[in-house]
Design goal:
With about 650 residues, this protein is α/β, with parallel strands linked by helices. It is built from 20 helices and 26 strands. It binds S-adenosylmethionine (SAM).
């Protein structure tokens, strides 16, 4: 960037206003900045200030929750997701297994409100603002993941490269790959003569993550030849290399029991080396032969045949071909009547092949030999087919070929984007939301990425498709997955009363739970949370017991719970210890605590209160043993500085 005098002057002016520690912070950032990667205009000072500006506290809104009487792990959080993520950092750090997000794509096309206004296509800072907006949120989100957690991010083709570099910065070395899905059947960009009909889902994961894949189909394992090692499945013996690419594994194979021969396919040669072929390459040089054999990654074809690892399909003697002379063989080959591949019918012998004479006078069998893969020889974790990066349409015909003869990959399927708008319309009767994702896309993704007890987070929840998908998946497999959805209200100066989170996201999930349009409800519940922001010095005055109770219930028990009445509020049970919150330390509280253990059958008490030492003293005087913790420290923990020993 070219610095004009005016720019330099204003930069110096800004530096004047910084204190010493802020200047140090800038210098460290400057000196340690990565030299390879993405750069965008951003200020580390503003970033720190945004993080530490205030504290975020949850408020449970019973009125907009579903089944508010009980506790629930399903949360819908209204507000800017930066604040929601700051709260989750204090309550769910290291606990989220799957994050899926579909952020605004920065199209410049009124898809993204930043600082209360839409960021337009000609905004000079459009890309930097978008990257910084996502960077701040992704760095918080990353720390919520379990050690085997994954984050999947939807993005269009135009912004994929920028977002991928950003994710490389947020989760270095954690890129797993990307999935591609087709969004529509018709194109629209006539000016470019290029039709954008696909989007990406970028996948970044912590070390322990794996997609579920698909368990190997046991029914494919049989035992037609009564092998004493049990059931096996036939695996191709060939690679995708041609004779010209890998001539060393082009050789004939003979069944030692029948004496029949099998030609190699010149377009797809054998996978395994042949000792006989190696010896023919190094005549009179045993050392070279042994060195070549020692360098092989698997056994030779001769060893496989000797160990009865190769299956030769039975054939009728009348189907075996034999040619008495080269002319007879050539005539058959040229007339298309020579040996062919059983399914594709492409010729196995051709006039241009180097070994045509070998086949004169040899009995040539029609089938193809295969390698036996025994069921018992494969460890359980390897009996899985991988996930394909290609997401096919619901009725699309996909022909997949697996390398190395392993299981064919699992293909996810998704409806096109337009179907998603209809799905939301189905719930509300009107077009309540622009550009949701198809339910099938998210449901199938989650089926591959989650296990039945996982927490799934979507902090750009929009119309709540991710929550809908979690409920649908649970209904299908009786799973106990839970969701956390964060959505803004999308209120602007023009539409101050708009509340997308309450009226679309939560309302959709409520209708899915209760049933809509004649469809039965899937069941379930959620807590609706709003966020209050409190500056640290004001905490003792502005944070109340309801805030603290919710924060601690979420952190310690992973649930939002309705606030109990009375001076002693039970948060939950941890082993034999009852965890309580007392808003005040007064005679009524002490009186309630004196026989609390006996009344509620708890062996030990842990109590949060605003004055833990006073409470501990007064309880000791009344003969009650309890561990007392500072409520204020507990509320601040995870968001500001250090905290209590909980
Ligand atoms: C592309 S939509 C997500 C659609 C969603 N996947 C669905 O299927 O309905 C992005 C959503 O993110 C919301 N959003 C944008 N900025 C946000 C912010 N800072 N905090 C919370 N939500 C935000 C927008 O209001 C919009 O609803």
């Amino acid at each position: 960037m070219n610095m004009t005098n005016k720019n330099v002057g204003s930069l110096l002016g800004q530096l004047e206003s910084l204190n010493e520690s802020q200047l140090r912070r800038l210098l460290v950032e400057h000196l340690t900045k990565q030299k390879l990667g993405l750069t965008w205009e951003a200020s580390a000072i503003e970033r720190d200030a945004a993080l530490n500006a205030d504290l975020v506290l949850p408020r449970h809104c019973a009125e907009w929750s579903q089944n508010p009487e009980g506790g629930t792990r399903n949360l819908i959080i209204e507000g800017d997701n930066f604040d929601a993520l700051r709260l989750l950092k204090a309550t769910h750090a290291g606990k989220i297994r799957v994050i899926y997000i579909d952020p605004p794509y920065n199209t410049g096309n009124k898809d993204w409100v930043y600082n209360d206004h839409y960021v337009g296509a000609n905004d000079r800072w459009r890309h930097s603002q978008w990257l910084e907006f996502l960077y701040r949120r992704l760095t918080l989100a990353r720390d919520l993941l379990t050690p085997d957690g994954v984050i999947m991010v939807s993005i269009n083709d135009e912004n994929r490269a920028r977002l991928e570099l950003l994710l490389d910065e947020v989760m270095p070395g954690r890129r797993l790959g990307s999935l591609v899905w087709r969004t529509k059947d018709t194109g629209n960009d006539l000016s470019q003569r290029f039709s954008h009909v696909h989007e990406h889902i970028l996948v970044y994961a912590n070390a322990g993550f794996k997609f579920n894949g698909r368990a190997t189909d046991r029914s494919k394992f049989r035992n037609p030849d009564e092998d004493s090692r049990g059931d096996w499945s036939p695996q191709p013996l060939t690679t995708n290399k041609t004779l010209f690419e890998r001539k060393n594994t082009y050789y004939p194979i003979q069944d030692p029991e029948t004496g029949y021969w099998y030609p190699c396919d010149p377009d797809s040669v054998w996978r395994f080396a042949s000792e006989k072929e190696i010896r023919s390459r190094f005549p009179d040089n045993e050392r070279a032969v042994q060195a070549a054999l020692a360098g092989l990654r698997s056994g030779t074809i001769e060893q496989l045949i000797e160990n009865k690892q190769i299956y030769f399909p039975p054939c009728k003697p009348s189907d075996v071909m034999e040619f008495a002379s080269r002319d007879e063989l050539l005539a058959a080959v040229n007339a298309g009547k020579g040996p062919v591949l059983p399914k594709k019918k492409t010729p196995l012998l051709r006039q241009d092949l180097p070994d045509l004479d070998f086949w004169v006078g040899k009995p040539i069998a029609p089938g193809r030999p295969s390698r036996k893969e025994h069921w018992t020889a494969k460890p359980q974790e390897e009996r899985l087919a991988p996930l394909s990066s290609w997401i096919a349409g619901l009725n699309e015909d996909v022909a997949l070929f697996s390398d190395d003869g392993d299981e064919e990959p699992v293909v996810l399927r998704s409806a096109r984007g337009g179907v998603a708008t209809e799905e939301v319309k189905d719930v509300f009767g009107t077009k309540a939301f622009q550009h949701p994702k198809p339910l099938s896309l998210i449901k199938n993704l989650l089926q591959q990425a989650t296990r039945p007890g996982d927490i799934v987070l979507d902090f750009f929840a929009g119309s709540g498709t991710t929550g809908h998908a979690v409920l649908a998946l649970n209904a299908e497999d009786k799973g106990q997955r839970s969701f956390i959805l964060c959505s803004s209200t999308e209120a602007t100066k023009k539409e101050p009363a708009k509340n997308l989170c309450r009226d679309v996201c939560a309302e959709r999930i409520r209708r899915v739970i209760q049933g809509y349009g004649g469809k039965p409800g899937l069941g379930g519940e959620f807590a609706y949370l709003q966020l209050d922001k409190v500056e640290v010095p004001d905490l003792p005055f502005e944070a109340d017991a309801a805030h603290a109770f919710q924060l601690l219930a979420l952190r310690r028990f992973g649930e939002a719970r309705p606030l109990p009445a009375g001076p002693v509020k039970r948060l939950g049970q941890s082993g034999d210890c009852a965890v309580l919150l007392c808003e005040r330390v007064d005679a009524e509280t002490i009186a309630s605590l004196v026989d609390w253990r006996a009344r509620n059958g708890a062996a030990r008490l842990a109590i949060y209160s605003p004055r833990p030492s006073t409470l501990a003293e007064q309880l000791a005087a009344a003969g009650v043993e309890a561990n007392c913790y500072s409520l204020l420290d507990a509320v601040m923990r995870g968001q500001v500085g250090g905290g209590a020993n909980e």
